[in-house]
Prior knowledge:
Oligomer: single chain
Amino acid sequence: MRKPYPTDLSDAEWNYIEPHIPPPLGHGRPRIHSLREMILDAIFYVLRSGCQWRLLPHDFPRWPTVYHYFRKWRIDGTWARINRAIRERLRVRLKRDPQPSAGIVDSQSVKTTGVGGQERGYDGGKKIKGRKRHLLVDTESFVLKAKVHSARAMDWDGIKTLLRRADHYFPRLKHLWVEDAGYRGEDKGKDWVEKTLGWSVDLVERPKKPAPKEVLMAWAEQWRKEGVMVDWQKLMPPKGFVVLPRRWVVERSFAWICHNRRMSKDYERLCASGEAFVYAAMSRLMVRRLARA
C-alpha cells in the first residue's frame, strides 16, 4: 500500500468515473495493476504536477505502462466520453438540462517546448510561438469540445475545425457567443456558424479605443459653430474595468485548466494528447465537485 498523493481519487470520485472506464477485453494477459490506484492516479499526478512521464515516482507502475493507458484512452475517445458523462451529471446536479442550449467559443495561445511535433506556428497577435487551444464551453464554464492546433491558424479557421459536427453532438445548442474580432468577416467565424449550423451568434468585442480628449473637444467646438451642442464628455468610454458579456465564462475555463502545471505550456508532441489532457483536467475538476456536493 503506497502513501497517498493529494492528486489521488477518493472513493466517491472513483465511483463516478469507474462506469466509464473500458472493461477488459476478456482475453490476453490479465491486468496486474489497479486502474484506479496505479493508472488513473498516476495520470492525474502527471497532469497536476507537470512532471515528465519518465519522472513518475517509483510507487507508481513503470511509465510506459501508465502512458500506454493514457494513449489508448486518447485514441478510443475515453477521455472525451468521461468528460461528457461527468459534465452531464454535474449539470443535472446544478438543476440544468444535461444538454446545453448556449455556448461560448474562444482560443488560448500557449508556448510549446523542445519536444518536437507538428502543428506549431507563430501567433502574431499574441506574439507567441506554439499552439492554440480552441474551446467550446457551456454557460457553466464546462468544456464541451476542445481542439488544439497551430498558433498560426486564424481564429476563423480554428472555429470551423472545433465546431465540425457540433450540431450532431449537441442537438439543443442554438446560441453562441464568440470572443474578439477574430471571428468577424464573411464566411468567417460568426457568419460561418450562422450559415452552416443555423445558430444565432453574438460577437463579443472589447470597447474600441476612444479618440484623444483634445480631438473630441475640437470636434465638439466645430459642431457648436454649426449650432449643435455636443457634450464631448459623453463620448468618452466609462473609466475602469468593463465586464464584457459572457467573456468571463470561457476565461474561467482556461484558468481552471491552467491550474494544472502540465497545462502551463503545451508539452505534448501530438495535438491529440493536448486535447486529451484538457478533457482529463476538466473531468478531474468536475468529479471533485460532484463528490463534494
